[in-house]
Design brief:
Layout lengths: L1 H6 L15 H12 L3 E6 L4 E4 L1 H8 L11 H4 L4 H14 L5 E9 L4 E14 L5 E13 H7 L15 H11 L2 H12 L2 H4 L8 H17 L1
Antiparallel strand pairs: 1-2, 1-5, 3-4, 4-5
Helix pairs in contact: 7-8
């Protein structure tokens, strides 16, 4: 883009030839050209349009190189109702704006395209410290349905099923395990009353009573 800007007929624009540009404009253009972020800027009463290689590749598409030196409201005529008030705010208040995932319908590839943009508009000042233009720095761009999905809150889809019951999990393991493992699993299910909810088997007092009687009888005999 540096070569395109150097070879452009700026005398045919409101800015005039580059040798007459103020130092502040030259500095702003160098910043835009030297950045790998997608950037565009507008300067002067007609908001003459500048941009860098990243912006040409990722955003302008077929509008490049036609957009260079045009009026900003001409370059983005289809979305000016959305971005125009933001730019007016920057120029009037010298306050930056911020938008995240703003949906814009662009006409840049022969059809109306739904796109999502995260960007900031910042004021640019001239050599006298007055706001003379604006700078746009774009950090992300997405298109279509993938973009709308990308800006939704994160969620697990499809929802995870609830964990299986212990007896069901045991039966699943037993079908895939060895016969010995299956027998162990079944025996655990029978001998674990706390898991199945069945009461413990009653004690067998007869056997204990018999033992005590035999012990007493043995003691008496001695």
């Amino acid at each position: 883009m540096g070569a395109r800007i150097a070879g452009h007929d700026w005398a045919a624009t409101p800015l005039g030839p580059p040798e007459d540009w103020p130092q502040s404009l030259r500095t702003a253009v160098r910043i835009v050209l030297g950045s790998r972020f997608a950037m565009w800027m507008a300067w002067g009463p007609e908001l003459t349009f500048f941009y860098n290689d990243a912006y040409a590749e990722h955003t302008l598409a077929s509008k490049h190189p036609w957009a260079l030196g045009r009026r900003a409201d001409e370059v983005w005529e289809e979305i000016w109702d959305d971005i125009g008030p933001r730019i007016d705010q920057v120029l009037a208040t010298s306050t930056a704006t911020w938008d995240e995932g703003l949906r814009l319908f662009l006409q840049r590839s022969g059809y109306r395209e739904e796109t999502y943009h995260t960007f900031s508009y910042s004021p640019l000042t001239d050599d006298d410290g007055r706001t003379a233009g604006m700078l746009c720095v774009s950090s992300r761009r997405r298109s279509g349905s993938s973009a709308s999905a990308a800006w939704r809150p994160c969620a697990t889809w499809p929802p995870r099923p609830p964990p299986p019951a212990r007896s069901e999990a045991c039966s699943r393991r037993s079908t895939a395990a060895s016969p010995a493992t299956a027998r162990t699993c079944r025996s655990r299910s029978r001998t674990s009353p706390a898991r199945t909810g069945s009461p413990r088997p009653p004690s067998r007092p007869g056997r204990r009573t018999g033992r005590r009687r035999s012990w007493s009888a043995a003691r008496c005999s001695t």
